[in-house]
Design a protein that fits this description.
With 483 residues, the protein is α/β, with parallel strands linked by helices. It has a domain of 246 residues: Alpha-Beta Complex (Amidase signature (AS) enzymes), CATH 3.90.1300.10. Helix content is 38%, strand content 12%. It is built from 15 helices and eleven strands. An eleven-stranded mixed sheet has the order 1-3-2-4-6-5-10-11-9-7-8, with helices on both faces. Helix 2 runs antiparallel to helix 3 and helix 9 packs across helix 11.
Length: 483
């Protein structure tokens, strides 16, 4: 199947129309979504109308995504289109505005054809907690696609769209990209506006793209990055053309740091073997590999699940059954309205994280938990900056395991939380990370991803290194038929 860049070139050359391409993707969704469950809401009428409007004006080379069909994670608002966050709480919520990133996609000429399934309110690592049912990995329908942006990754891998927007709070772009054989980037915190993204943990959330190639991700990030005065955490930096960095074919003069804490116990033999082979390929391209240490990263799971749940407890307090969202039809009084609307509207995992966060913020526990976690977070950030002072980027596995079977660990929250042990710390540090397929796990025959972690606002370096590595690793094509 075509990459985004290839599809765009065909559109600009007049070899196909925006309507024809949109119809092809919509048909692919119709054929595959019953099996994969990647999409919650399909914008067929709106997408075809938008594509027809583009065709009426004609191809525009100044718009880098002209006529290209993309999908958007269902916690990012699209004006007039249902935005559910994978939850009963927002099952019928229709926003009246576009998220900043969505507006930028439209300005770049993209056609948004669907909203994608996800772990409820982005709380999960497998896309099994959605009110609309679990997402299945297109490369093996018995396995998870990762989470929480599993629907976005699955849609790209299944050929339903050429690219997707996801959000990454603790690995939710990088891990599903790795599990589905896609490329995904978590930008530096503040690089892409969070305006229009339904908040989970405000100091950690970041919107980013997922696609079939490094070049495609660079095109997408170029379109959506930039300062937004509506987001107080948006960095006052102009966007840039990240495709300009995709010129090198080797890694001569590049130093990659290998954090020993990311290569220790817990990694399966299959993942370790594939990632070790990836390091050898990096060496063959001319990279210098050095060992680095980030000792406080070992505490990232504990720190993350204190800070993230505390922020979730605060952010999700707005869903009270009064203004919008799910509301029980027959409340006895105000207390009953609040309690039952939230109990019935939120799923088990969301309720668990709200309660954890409320506990850590409560009187008598704030200093022992939240304040201490914030202090360790700073130490984790310092570890990253110290390690990156010695190299151009860090390289490590995305996940210690390959995609597991649906339902295999869904009843063990702690084990599920540990699946993100290699991704959480980057969000705590606010730094950029690029995930790309490194090959397949010899034990499961499923994709294995490697991540590049970089300096603040240095996504260009990650794209340059990732593009060279992609040439050595090879790209994974979209799935034609399921197994």
């Amino acid at each position: 199947m075509l990459t985004l860049a290839e599809a765009r070139d065909r559109l600009l050359k007049g070899e196909c129309t925006a309507v024809e391409l949109a119809k092809a993707c919509l048909k692919r969704i119709a054929d595959t979504n019953p099996a994969v469950n990647a999409c919650i809401t399909i914008r067929e009428a709106d997408a075809l109308e938008e594509a027809a409007a583009l065709d009426k004006v004609g191809p525009d080379s100044a718009k880098p995504l002209w006529g290209v069909p993309v999908v958007v994670k269902d916690c990012i608002t699209v004006k007039g289109t249902r935005t559910t966050c994978g939850s009963r709480m927002l099952e019928n919520f229709i926003p009246f505005y576009d998220a900043f990133a969505v507006r930028k996609l439209k300005e770049a000429g993209a056609v948004i054809i669907a909203k994608t399934n996800m772990d409820e309110f982005a709380m999960g690592s497998s896309s099994e907690t959605s009110y609309f049912g679990p997402v299945r990995n297109p490369r093996d329908l018995s396995r998870v696609p990762g989470g929480s942006s599993g629907g976005s990754a699955a849609a790209v891998a299944a050929g339903q769209a050429f690219a997707a927007l996801g959000t990454d709070t603790g690995g939710s772009i990088r891990q599903p990209a790795a599990f589905c054989g896609c490329v995904g980037i978590k930008p530096t915190y503040g690089r892409v506006s969070r305006f229009g993204a339904v908040a989970y943990a405000s100091s950690l959330d970041q919107i980013g793209p997922m696609a079939r190639s490094v070049e495609d991700c660079a095109i997408m990030l170029s379109a959506i990055a930039g300062h937004d005065p509506k987001d107080s955490t948006s960095a006052p930096r102009d966007g840039q053309d990240y495709t300009a960095s995709l010129k090198r074919g080797d890694l001569k003069g590049v130093t990659l740091g290998v954090p020993k804490e990311f290569w220790g116990e817990g990694i399966t033999d299959g993942v370790r073997k594939t990632c070790a082979e990836a390091l050898e390929k990096a060496k063959a391209l001319g990279a210098q590999i050095i060992d680095v240490s980030m000792p406080h990263a070992l505490h990232s799971v504990a720190v993350f699940y204190i800070i993230a749940t505390a922020e979730a407890s605060s952010n999700l307090a707005r869903f009270d059954g009064v203004r919008y969202g799910y509301r029980v039809p027959d409340p006895r009084d105000l207390a009953d309205l609040y309690i039952r609307s939230r109990t019935e509207g939120f799923g088990e995992e969301v309720r668990r994280r709200i309660m954890l966060g409320t506990y850590t913020l409560s009187s008598g526990f704030y200093d022992a938990y939240y304040k201490k976690a914030a202090q360790v977070r700073r130490l984790i950030q310092q570890d990253y900056h110290a390690a990156l002072a010695r190299c151009d980027a860090l390289i490590a596995p995305v996940s210690p395991v390959s995609p597991w079977k649906l339902g295999e660990i869904s009843d063990d929250p702690l084990k599920m939380y540990l699946m993100d042990i290699f991704t959480l710390s980057l969000n705590l540090a606010g730094l950029p990370g690029l995930s790309l397929p490194a090959g397949t796990d010899c034990e499961t025959n499923m994709p294995t991803g490697i991540q590049l972690m970089g300096k603040p606002f240095d996504e260009s370096a990650l794209f340059a290194i990732g593009h060279a590595l992609e040439g050595a690793f090879g790209r994974m094509s979209a799935v034609e038929t399921f197994r």
